[in-house]
Prior knowledge:
This protein is 38% helix and 21% strand. The protein is of the alpha+beta class. It has an eight-stranded mixed β-sheet with strand order 1-5-6-11-10-9-7-8. Helix 1 packs antiparallel against helix 5 (137-153) and helix 2 packs across helix 4. The longest helix is centred in the N-terminal third of the chain and has 20 residues, at 15-34. The relative contact order is 0.11. The mean pLDDT is 93. The chain binds histidyl-adenosine monophosphate. Residues 82-84, 112, 114, 119-121, 124, 126, 128, 130, 258-259, 279-284, 286, 302-304, 306, 308-309 line the site of histidyl-adenosine monophosphate.
Amino acid sequence: MNNFKNLRGTVDLLPEQLIKWQNVEKIILEQLFRASVKEIRTPIIEMTELFMRGIGEATDVVSKEMYTFLDRGERSCTLRPEGTASVVRALIQNGISTKPSQKLWYMGPMFRYERPQAGRQRQFHQLGVEFVGYESERSDIEIITLAWDILEKLGIKDLNLEINTLGDQTDRSNFQKAFLKWLEVNKNYLDLDSQKRIDKNPLRILDTKNVKTKKILEDAPRLFDFLSEGSLERYSTIKENLKLIKIPFFENFNLVRGLDYYTHTAFEITSGALGSQATVCGGGRYDNLIRQMGGPETPAIGFAIGLERLILLSGKDLEKSRETDIYIVNKGVHAEIFAMELSRKLRKYDLKTELDLSRGSFSKQFKKANKIKSKSIIVIGDDEASNKEFVIRLFNNENSENQEERIPILDNIKLEHWINKNLFKKTL
Length: 428
Ligand code: HAM
């Protein structure tokens, strides 16, 4: 007996569920194509060091959530917990300096050892977009609108865009000094988790969900007050532009994001319909990461959308698959070979066809065609095979008698004519 089960936090995606995934992915790919964003694929597994340096050792993702193991050559490897570090590595390795600006996307599984719940898995999927080599505020706007428009195009309602600025490195270290001083005095009033973060990653304390700590933090110094003139100007330009293009947003001074590489713009898009795991999209600018990883000084900005959350949010209309155009009912030794040839021929057209492989009775095959609501059927028995012809007719249609035709197997013109008249008539 087989008692195997999938690992906790991973899921099987079954054919019926995948219809929605495929429809969602198709809309996303169209949007990215129209925005001239190109695909990049990097390995799912990388050197552990890449994520430690790229994402930051003190982050939850790196310190608690990575799937890390030694391979047979005793090298420490990690299943990617996100895509940005890998994309940066791939660009540096493949000569980023020859192509200064690039708009890239990737889609695929990511791995984080988190407590699974609705909308949170250990193997989950992300669509990521990275604009590398782009510095101006216009790229911030373009990246935010791209994320927003993908979500809107999928018909997702009740979306909230939250933005913040984290300033540059100098702004942040000035703030950090003041914040650490304040933390020294107020340490004992904070929740335990936040206390633990003081030494490792104090900025993340701002992001706490603990209500009491949140209240106490209201009196703490604010990062916003340490921003240089340049950082402030950049941030207000972005806000003005968002208003001009009518994308509604909230400012959230406590939005610091969970990964260390961010500078200036940070943003998240949440949906009230998602419950506790409300963030469907997160992103921001990372102007120092590429240099930190050994590449040339290159500004960049990007985002990632969690596909599981996107699927939960998108509507029922995307659960429908395209209908079968022709179901091939066939029975008899000669008919089977004939049906197989015909099935291959039909795949050259933009049609969805299905060849019945059951060898069941004609009536059972008709029932199957009916069940899947095929628009038409081809019927081939040995009589048809010996006459080198087949019958094609509209199915599930009151007047199907009128649209029935006998077509010689070699008569492609007659077949095409019938298909054009009866199956493509709405689109032509
Ligand atoms: P992130 O905020 O860590 O950002 O993840 C982005 C999105 O991935 C989240 O908003 C959420 O929708 C989804 N997600 C994260 N963890 C899980 C999980 N355990 N289960 C299901 N969905 C999850 C990043 O990963 C950055 N690389 C985004 C970025 C790209 N920033 C700049 N460029």
